[in-house]
Design goal:
Layout (H helix, E strand, L loop, with lengths): L10 E4 L7 H5 L9 E6 L14 H4 L7 E5 L7 H15 L4 E6 L1 H13 L11 E2 L8 E6 L13 E3 L4 E5 L7 E4 L9 H19 L6 H20 L5 H19 L5 H13 L3 H9 L7 H13 L14 H12 L2 H8 L3 H4 L2 H10 L1
Parallel strand pairs: 1-9, 2-3, 2-4, 4-6, 5-8, 6-9
Antiparallel strand pairs: 7-8
Helix pairs in contact: 3-4, 5-6, 5-7, 5-9, 6-7, 8-9, 8-11, 11-14
The structure holds nicotinamide-adenine-dinucleotide (NAD) and zinc ion (ZN).
Length: about 375
């Protein structure tokens, strides 16, 4: 038995208003006059206020040739977008001191991937898989503005490439620094906050019910689950404490899957997102709604949370798809072997047949 030896984020700061320590954090990372690049979610472009009422742009500690780029996350990150961002930066500056991703899981993943592509040759599509990245990227920091994905702590960056949707999983992928400032999540729309928050809840259920579970994963998973329950089941109103708790749930949920894996909801949701462009959080919710057979208690509680938080989960999204389209989703989903093995055990292929998966997709 070989145990996973994984790299983690090097520095973590947590606290309301900790974003304002960014200047102090970045100063030692500056290399001569090479700029810091701030890759910010396009949601902040029009001056949307952060938790303390000030627009994000006014709070970014710009120096010299530093640049703010607003990332378009209308679609989840594609390898082509990562490659373009990295090429443009190389053309403009040669080298950069670092890249700081400020946003949801999409922007954080983009920042990680661009960091790696500043120093690795070819296209990011060449590195979709496990441990294919050969060289460290430039300095990278992640600052979540939505809580739930765990992208702030993970060793992957999920990208849609020409032939697959798969992460650049490597020891070079985790951030050098994360800034966990719950104030930045305060203005997230209710639905988005729920979908991304449920990503965390689902990570916990899949990790805790999985065959890969060990005490390391369990300890983090149980804490994250408890925090999700406090926020989405017990509380009646969203407040600043909810933002604090959900940010730590996301972190702990991410730590839980670092040593285990996700499961059925994610494996099926990847098929939806590859074919239909369904976003990660909402896709997971659409699938989770139909997984009583695999996660009976988790699904019952999920349905209660949907009702309590008055959120709509779309239905009928696979209506009218062709056999070929179903096959595409089934191929993508069954390709996620570690997820299925974690969920259903070594003999998963006997349990999750193509016909069974097709029947599940038809329900969505
Ligand atoms: P997201 O980053 O895709 O953002 C969703 C929407 O919310 C966007 O329109 C964005 O502009 C907006 N937004 C972001 N912050 C906001 C704020 N504070 N207020 C208002 N709007 C805001 O959503 P997400 O659920 O955080 O991330 C999903 C992505 O994360 C997917 O691409 C998925 O593949 C990835 N992911 C990565 C990992 C990992 O380990 N790397 C894990 C899970 C998911
Ligand atoms: Zn997820």
């Amino acid at each position: 038995m070989k145990f996973r030896n994984f790299r983690m984020v090097s520095y973590v700061v947590y606290g309301r208003g900790s974003f304002d320590q960014l200047e102090e954090i970045l100063t030692p990372q500056r290399k001569g006059d090479a700029p810091m690049i701030f890759l910010a979610d396009h949601f902040f472009e029009k001056g949307a206020p952060t938790g303390n009422g000030q627009p994000l742009i006014n709070r970014i500690p710009l120096r010299g040739k530093d640049k703010v780029i607003f990332a378009d996350v209308t679609y989840e990150p594609k390898t082509s977008y990562v490659d373009k961002l990295a090429q443009d930066l190389k053309a403009a500056f040669g080298t950069i001191s670092g890249i700081i991703g400020i946003g949801g899981g999409s922007v954080m993943d983009l920042a990680k991937a661009v960091s790696l592509m500043m120093n690795n040759p070819g296209s990011s599509a060449d590195y979709q898989g496990w441990d294919l990245v050969k060289l460290p990227g430039v300095y990278k920091a992640g600052i979540p503005t939505l809580s739930g994905t765990g992208a702030e702590v993970s060793r992957t960056t999920v990208l849609t490439g020409p032939t697959r949707k798969l992460g650049m999983n490597s020891d070079f992928t985790p951030f050098d620094q994360i800034v966990l400032d719950p104030e930045l999540t305060a203005n997230a729309p209710v639905n988005q906050r729920f979908y991304t928050g449920m990503d965390c809840y689902i990570h916990c259920i899949e990790s805790l019910q999985g065959t890969y579970l060990n005490e390391f994963s369990k300890s983090y998973g149980e804490k994250a689950l408890e925090l999700c329950r406090e926020v989405f089941v017990r509380k009646n109103n969203w407040d600043s404490e909810s933002d604090d708790k959900l940010m730590m749930a996301s972190y702990a949920g991410g730590m839980s899957i670092a040593y285990s894996q996700v499961g059925v909801a994610h494996a099926v949701s990847y098929g939806l997102s590859y074919l239909l462009g369904t976003k990660h959080g909402i896709g997971n919710c659409i699938v989770m709604d139909h997984l009583e057979e695999y996660y009976p208690e988790g699904v019952a509680e999920f349905k209660k949370m949907v009702e309590k938080n008055k959120v709509e989960i779309p239905t009928g999204i696979c209506k009218g798809l062709t056999d070929e389209q179903f096959d595409t989703m089934i191929n993508v989903s069954l390709g996620m072997k570690p997820l299925w093995e974690n969920a259903l055990g070594r003999d998963w292929e006997k349990i999750m047949t193509r016909d069974k998966l097709r029947a599940l997709y038809e329900k969505l």
